[in-house]
Design brief:
The chain is of the alpha+beta class and 181 residues long.
Length: 181
């Protein structure tokens, strides 16, 4: 029997259900949220059912940001490292409060919010969009051009970092407690 609408204690977490749980009030600004989603049927090229999850548009991840800083010859300033760590720990606390342990924590799974407005993102998409793909049952367009422009160090020191990448999580009931009571 599945746990509280989220986890099969003998299996890995079903990501869309985990995101739905994280997205319920109270939410955390440091944990990815699910805005909408569902299941769609595939076509001849991708048969079967496919889960679709809609999240906010993020500007990129910590790996891209830190790589850009190092490539430009800058060291990663201690205030930025502290900010990323603090926001990541707050995201982890939110997960743990909901019975979930993140088991794939790395810079690829720590996203940052973009300072771009919806109109500015729209301009990037228009400018950098790949061509639409034709399928037998319709046309598909990319929703967002990736990656968006990397933020500056000044923007990074003000932005919000968000924990994502929940494809390798586990129920906290599967992790043995190392604390004695």
């Amino acid at each position: 029997m599945w746990g509280p609408g989220l986890i099969n204690p003998t299996e890995l977490v079903y990501v869309p259900l985990a995101l739905m749980k994280f997205s319920k009030s109270p939410t955390s600004p440091h944990c990815i949220t699910r805005m909408a989603g569902g299941v769609v049927s595939g076509n001849d090229g991708t048969p079967g059912k496919h889960t679709v999850t809609v999240t906010p548009v993020y500007g990129g991840n910590a790996k891209q940001l830190l790589s850009a800083l190092v490539s430009s010859g800058s060291a990663v300033p201690l205030p930025l490292a502290k900010r990323i760590l603090l926001h990541t720990l707050r995201g982890l606390a939110h997960c743990h409060e909901r019975g979930f342990v993140h088991t794939n924590l790395d810079p690829d799974n720590i996203f940052f919010e973009t300072p771009l407005s919806t109109n500015e993102i729209g301009e990037v998409v228009k400018r950098d969009s790949p061509p639409a793909e034709q399928f037998h049952d319709g046309t598909t367009n990319s929703a967002v051009s990736q990656p968006l422009p990397v933020i500056t160090l000044e923007e990074a020191l003000r932005t919000n970092f968000v924990l994502g990448g929940f494809s390798h999580g586990e129920s906290s009931s599967r992790i043995p407690s190392r604390c004695s009571s």
